[in-house]
């Protein structure tokens, strides 16, 4: 039994494997699309903003990276509402189509030398479409997977889905590294940069095939059977559950900032320290490879130890260690030291990212789960994750201190530390395959 009565028992392992893969494949495409842009930012700044000073061009390219996050809240309302009103599956299919299509078009765009100012305008348009899709993709995929999973295994399940996101960073970095190693700088600037974006098309088609064969989640089916589907998910979310939106924003703060600083900005940061693009991408690839292992481990640990102690511990550790890590990284005198510091910088964000998704899902009731999760997470993405590259680079330019990006990372950790203390006081939602909650335990929406 669950917060939605009358739901069937946990599904068989074969179905769970299919659900996990279907949820993960969309996250893989989404994060791959974002990561490719991040890893090619330095090159894109030269192709789409050639008339600017190098530093200004890089900031412009980072701003275009961030603009996709501005529309994420709108996308969260659109696709989160679809998931809560019509089902998780339609939302999963729609987000994947929009994301893969927009990324493929980026690979076909003319550059500024060909069409002038239209080049950055078209680039921004494609990034806006990516942002709309991303606003609902991650939250709906996590919600879908979790609604098939018993609470005692929910951390492990959502961390397996999260592996798709981190592994796609590894895929994107690997593709960029391979192209950088095999193509000349001239060839890379002429046509090589397009290849990673065009690969989104076959990835998207595979994902679309898999998701089109999904069945609806047991939690949403139970809502339909009992006529409990909300006719206005957005209105109900903001009128009755706005505190949960704020809570999810707080939990997501460190995930958003840490993820993009450690696994995207770090590559550009190393290039600015004097390392070549090949060396910087290699360091990032190794860091992401380690992160994949940590993401796989973090979810199961949270099933044993609880979500909030891990979230709290990682946030506190980041407050203490972020500045020393940036200090060591900024003064790295060899590639080996740079790789080690880059790996260490990614340890805490990776573990945090593996635990946070189950937390988001467990604090929100089923009727508005996809919308509340999507909106809270999208707001964190728009206000913190998207600007992370731009803010980090701006801090360096304004202060002249290469260690200053640590301050933004510490800010996110502080917000999430406070949120983890709030999560501690909230009993988790009991989802579809679970047994009934103990007598006297209130659902989170009643707290």
TrEMBL record:
InterPro entries: H+-coupled_symporters, MFS_dom, MFS_sugar_transport-like, MFS_trans_sf, Sugar_transporter_CS. This is Glycine betaine/L-proline transporter ProP. The gene is proP_1. Keywords: Cell membrane, Membrane, Symport, Transmembrane, Transmembrane helix, Transport. It is a multi-pass membrane protein. The chain crosses the membrane at residues 56-80, 92-111, 117-140, 161-179, 191-210, 244-262, 282-301, 308-329, 335-360, 372-392, 404-423. It comes from the Bacteria. The keyword Cell membrane applies. Its main location: membrane. It is found in: Cell membrane. Residues 19-430 form the Major facilitator superfamily (MFS) profile domain.
């Amino acid at each position: 039994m669950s917060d939605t009565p009358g739901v069937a028992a946990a599904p068989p392992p074969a179905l769970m494997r299919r659900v996990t893969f279907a949820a993960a494949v969309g996250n893989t495409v989404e994060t791959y699309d974002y990561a490719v842009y991040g890893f090619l930012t330095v090159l894109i700044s030269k192709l789409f903003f050639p008339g600017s000073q190098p530093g200004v061009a890089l900031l412009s390219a980072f701003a275009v990276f961030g603009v996709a996050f501005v529309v994420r809240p709108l996308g969260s309302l659109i696709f989160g509402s679809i998931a809560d009103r019509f089902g998780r599956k339609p939302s999963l299919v729609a987000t994947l189509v929009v994301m893969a299509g927009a990324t493929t078009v980026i690979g076909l765009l003319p550059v500024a030398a060909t069409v002038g100012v239209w080049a950055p305008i078209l680039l921004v348009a494609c990034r806006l479409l990516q942002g709309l899709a991303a606003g609902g993709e991650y939250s709906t995929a996590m919600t879908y997977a979790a609604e098939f999973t018993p609470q005692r295994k929910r951390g492990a399940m959502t961390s397996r889905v999260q592996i798709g996101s981190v592994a796609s960073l590894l895929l994107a970095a690997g593709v960029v590294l391979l192209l950088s190693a095999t193509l000349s700088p001239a060839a890379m600037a002429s046509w090589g940069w397009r290849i990673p974006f065009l690969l989104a098309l076959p990835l998207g088609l595979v994902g679309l095939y898999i998701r089109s064969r999904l069945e609806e989640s047991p939690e949403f089916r139970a809502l339909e059977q009992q006529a409990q589907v909300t006719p206005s998910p957005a209105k109900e979310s903001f009128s009755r559950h706005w505190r949960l939106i704020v809570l999810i924003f707080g939990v997501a703060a460190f995930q958003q900032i840490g993820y993009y600083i450690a696994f995207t900005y770090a590559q550009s940061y190393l290039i600015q320290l004097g390392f070549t693009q090949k060396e910087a991408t290699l360091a990032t690839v190794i860091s992401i490879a380690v992160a994949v292992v940590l993401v796989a481990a973090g979810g199961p640990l949270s099933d044993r130890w609880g979500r909030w102690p891990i979230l709290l511990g990682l946030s506190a550790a980041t407050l203490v260690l972020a500045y020393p890590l940036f200090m060591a990284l900024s003064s790295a005198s060899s590639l080996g030291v740079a790789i080690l510091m880059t790996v260490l910088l990614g340890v805490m964000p990776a573990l945090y990212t593996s635990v946070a998704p189950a937390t988001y899902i467990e604090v929100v009731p089923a009727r508005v789960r996809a919308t509340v999760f999507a909106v809270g997470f999208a707001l964190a993405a728009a206000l913190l994750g998207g600007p992370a590259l731009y803010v980090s680079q701006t801090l360096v330019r304004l202060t002249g201190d290469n260690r200053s990006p640590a301050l933004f990372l510490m800010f996110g950790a502080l917000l999430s530390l406070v949120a983890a203390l709030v999560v501690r006081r909230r009993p988790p939602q009991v989802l579809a395959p679970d047994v009934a909650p103990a007598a006297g335990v209130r659902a989170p929406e009643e707290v």
